[in-house]
Amino acid sequence: MATKHDNVLRALRALFIPLASLLLKDKLTVAMVINELKSAFVEVARREYGGKARPASINRVAELTGMSRKHVSALIAKSAEMDRPESPRLLDSSAVLGVWANSEKYLDSRGTPRELEFGPGPGTFSELVRSVTGEQDVESCLHRFVQAGCVSIQGDKRISLVRRHYIGKDDNLAHIISLFLVPLATSISQNWNAPLENRHVVRAAHSARIQPDKVGVLRRVSRERLGAFLEDIDDVICSYELSGEEPLVSENGKSLPRIGVAAFYFEIEEQET
What we know:
By secondary structure, the chain is mainly alpha-helical. Helix content is 50%, strand content 2%. Strands 1-2 form a two-stranded antiparallel ribbon.
């Protein structure tokens, strides 16, 4: 009879399979990944199982994680020497287009996104990209947008917005993990044992009985509706953004480097044994 932990470990294996596929594509080894996993266990055990405003003791962390005191101490020392993980940019490529479509600075008298000069200078495409993402290689950003069909370059070299939703090749695995996997796992963790009224929305609509000739239709409908939904949400987010550099904090005073909404379509294939 399967225990609770057996079921969780089976689910973890199902999670690890696509994650391992991604990591191997990026040339990461098992040792590199396991070391980060151990460090994460130690960090969470210290933070969440200590006393009032004090981290848990090395003995307690060792007991919780199943690692030796010596190994825990080494991981804590190594972590103290390393820089904290860099927070991902608040906004990705789609957000550049969202700011273009919502900020008065980049709108014409009718309230529609105006054509932008490449720049540099105030109100230019260069300023837009750098102010949102911090990216200095604006030429590469423009190339990505052109390739994705988000913008077009007019005869006078001005850049016009074609569509706001950016769908392009993203081979930056750190960006993918930070933008999609971290927020989902964080919301699930924060929901654990939280009162229902305080839980973040985590929902999925799925089926194992879709008509085969309707799969393509479902893909298309999902792409259209999710795109429209996220544009509407992005409008709301942009309308609530602070104009300055004031830090974002939660109702209980904790720092919030970013908040947002994510949505995606998925297909899970049967794994061959």
